Amino acid sequence: MSEAVDPRVDAHAVSRAGRERRRNEDMVLLDELCLVYVVADGLGGMPAGEVASEVAVECIGSTLESEGCGALSDLPAVCREAHEAVKEVGRDFGGAGIATTLTLAHLRPRTLRVAHVGDSRAFLIRGGRCIALTSEHRVGVERVDLFDVFPPQGSSRGPLTRALGQDRGFEVDLVTYELRDDDCIVLATDGLTDLVATEEIGAVVDGGFDAEGCCDALLQLTAGRGAADDVSIVVIRVEDAGRPGES
In sequence order, what are the beta bridge partners of 2? Predict the structure, then answer.
């Protein structure tokens, strides 16, 4: 019998308000104990986007603190709990309430799981390829009733079809990937992906930077292109993918 060995990673996050924003409506979470990483982007087309993203991230943090890492065995349930927390707070704002995107990555021995709602993104960079692990939940990408949408956040693309805090169409996408040594995972809000192509993200990661250096380089790319929207980035470099336990 051998015990499981958790992945060993180098992780870093940055979050910066856009040049045309009065406040940063993004939030990030890095939990090195549970190896869970989150980006959330409060919807700027609705009230109090910064409140929505903060409530979602704080709810996940509170769940991990009270229930431990074992709570992550059911990622959709963790996300739904955050959704309900955002919805509850949203009642104080009247009308349609508040909403946020959420993209969460959880690393286990030799396994990567990503839970996702909205248009924030997750990428896996491996062997020179940048693989999109999530798709955008927005009109033009998903086939939806055109009345079942939420206001855009300043993007020129269509409005969102799913978001935490909004029951209409709410569903959590969950993807599972094999995790390998030297993989790199990037989570980002649309402040990055609206300005920087998937191939460029991969090129930065392959440039030899550590996690902090990757975040800084990607942030500089957005700054050079205007960076009107808030930008949040999490980079997770996998030094050792770990080992599952054997009985």
Answer: 246
Q: List b or e across 41-62, with b for residues whose CB sees 16 or more CB atoms inside 10 angstroms.
A: bbbbebbbbbbbbbbbbebbbe
pLDDT tens digits, residue range 160-208?
889 999 988 899 999 999 999 999 999 999 999 999 999 999 999 999 8
Percent residues over pLDDT 70 in the chain: 90
Q: List pLDDT tens digits, range 120-157.
A: 999 999 999 999 999 887 765 544 443 344 444 444 45
Q: What angle do CA 216, 79, 98 make, to 5 degrees?
A: 80
Look-up of token digits 């996702």: 116
DSSP states of 159-190: PBS--BT--TT---EEEEEE--TT-EEEEE-H
| Averaged pLDDT of the chain | 90
User: d(Cα 141, Cα 139) in Å, to the nearest integer?
Assistant: 5
Find the length of the chain. 247
Residue 42 CA to residue 165 CA, distance in Å, equals 10
Cα torsion 73, 165, 171, 15: sign: negative
Give residue 45's pLDDT band: very low, low, confident or very high (50, 70, 90).
Answer: low
The CB-side HSE value for 111 (13 A sphere, CA atoms) comes to: 13
Radius of gyration of the chain (CA): 17
158 torsion bin: left (phi>0), alpha (psi -120 to 50), beta (else)? beta
SS3 percent helix, strand, coil of the chain, rounded to 5, is 30, 30, 40
Distance, in Å, from the CA atom of 44 to the CA atom of 18, rounded to the nearest integer, reads 12
In 3D space, the residue among 96, 91, 125 whose CA is nearest the CA of residue 236 turns out to be 125
